[in-house]
Every structure is written in C-alpha cells, then in structure tokens.
Structure of 3'-to-5' oligoribonuclease A:
Amino acid sequence: MQTYEQSLEQAKQFLLEHDDFLVVSHIQPDGDAVSSTVAVGWLLSCLGKKFTLINEGSIPERMQFLLMSDQIVNMEQNPLERTFQHVICVDCADFGRVGLTERYFDNNAEILNIDHHPTNNGYGSVTLIKPDAAATAEILYDLINISNVTWNQEIATAIYTGLLTDTGGFRYSNTSPKVMAIASKLLDYGVNGPELSEQLLESMTHAQMKVLTKALRSLQMTDDGKISWVCITPQDMIDTGAANEDLEGIVNYPRNIQGVEVGILFKVINDQAVKVSMRSAGKVDVAALAQSFGGGGHVRAAGCKIEGAMETIVPEVIERVRSFL
Ligand code: 5GP
Ligand code: MN
C-alpha cells in the first residue's frame, strides 16, 4: 500500500512523462468537478503540456467565471474527432461517471484517477485517491504544491470553489483543520471568499426558487419522522424552466428537518429512470445505501440512478433506507 505522498509523486510523474491529455470529470458537474477539471488544465498548461478539457454536458452558468472553464468542451455541442491515449479523470467515483466522454478514450488508454470518494473502485492505471479529502480540489492543491509552479489568484479561486461547494460553505463534517488551513492560504493568494459564497451558495435564479417551491410542496415523511423526501417530475422542470444544476441543494431541505436521519430527492428523469440524491444526518451511511442501488458517494452525501418508474422506486428506496436505520 503506497502512502498519499507516494501517490502524489506518481501522479506528478504521470503528468511529466506524458503529453496530449484528455481531462474529464463526472456528468452533471458540480463545483468540485468543474474546479478540478480547470485546475488540472491550469497545471498542465504550466508544465507546457497539450491537453483537452471535456465534459459530457454543459458547465453550470454560475461556474463559468472560473479560469479556463470556457475551454471545457461540451461534447453534446462539439463532438471531438479523435481519441486520447492519456486520460485524467477527476472527481469520478467510478468509471461510468465519465458518461459518454468514454468514447474519446483509446481502447488501451492510460488513466490517472484523481478522486476523494470512499466508494471509488480504483479504476485506471495510476490512482490518486484520498477518501478523507473534503474535495478533489483539496488533492489538487497538494499536487500543485509539489509541482514547482507559482500560485496566482485565479487558480486559488478555482481550488477554493471546489472546497467551498463540497463542504457546503465550510459547514459539513468534511471541513477538516486542513481544509481551513488551505482556505486561509488561498485567501492570502487573493481569493474573494464572500463574493464566491454569494455567487455559488446564496444567490438563486427565479427558476431555481420556483423549482424549490415545487419540491417543497411534494415533501413527505415516514410516520416515525426519520425519512423525508421530495420529488421533482419532468413536468416540474418544464413548468419552472429549471435546469438540472438548479436542483443543487434542494435535498438538504428534507434532511434539515429535526429528527430526520435521511433526506432524499427523487428526480424523475422519465418513465424508466429516477435519479436519487441522499443526505444523512450522520447515523446512516448513505454511500453504502446508494451503492446497494449501483451508485456511490460519501457517507453523508450519495446518489444513484435507478431504472424503473417513480411509483415503484420511491417505496423501494424508502424500505431500503428503513433497513439501514
Ligand atoms: P448528488 O446527490 O449531489 O448528485 O451527489 C452526492 C454525491 O454522490 C456526490 O459526491 C456524487 O459524486 C455522488 N453520486 C451521485 N450520484 C451518483 C451515481 O449515480 N453514482 C455514483 N457512484 N456516485 C454518485
Ligand atoms: Mn467532489
């Protein structure tokens, strides 16, 4: 078993020894996914390497201020014409999370897997996985520090964004002393903390508020008050004009109710599939719960996609949660 320092060194060698990389994060990217993608892009550019940044879909609007975020290819709009031998996956707990971007990987592609999910299954030829890191951006902070490059305000802002969003504004239990120490350094590099909190966590579009209202109207709870959930249907998305990125944070509402152990958001994709987001108050390991449905994540925040109709999936998930209580 190699140490974290050895893994960091190995990842650095992977960057130094190869060239012409494809950098990818998970489908429907969150703050950490986007930050990690651009941070790797920035590091590669400092090292004089060629690279392409890509995601299966678009980058949420509120993150489009990040450096190099305009370079992340949206493959739905701009499909690539070629494949890559060297791929760097960031914040992807399992290989499937890269989505359709997989078609741009050579059949025998060498993959560097950088991630912080405890459920990461270690795919790839080189792995840099730190399950107790608050965000993948925290790992990239360390990788940048051993790479002899000079910090500036823009890259500091990207790393801060990953930390800020994955810790829910430095509030969740993953907010370690190390996270606070890193944040302090990043503020020294010129990061505007309050402005980022406002933009990434506080401010809402009208569509976001409308879809939140719909979700709260659907709120349900088990008789014992330990499980609470909300549902969002395709019709809700049409009625409110909301995009998937507008659903971020809604799952916290059922979880925040006093006495609730597990809060759930059921996002109906269509008649055949439902995306399930789960949040734990602390007792239940929702990563294990989500894994039992083929998903994954963290002990307190996890998700999965389940094939089937909402009418059958909701009771099935609630029953499974009960068995974990
Ligand atoms: P969210 O509920 O915000 O979509 O995701 C919460 C956490 O669970 C994130 O860390 C995310 O990476 C993980 N997660 C969400 N959906 C899936 C999934 O379908 N598969 C896996 N492996 N992880 C997921
Ligand atoms: Mn993350």
Notes: Residues 9 and 146 are 8 Å apart (CA to CA). Residues 93-94, 97, 117, 119, 277, 295-298, 301-305 surround guanosine-5'-monophosphate (ligand 1) (CB under 6 Å). The chain has eleven helices and twelve strands.
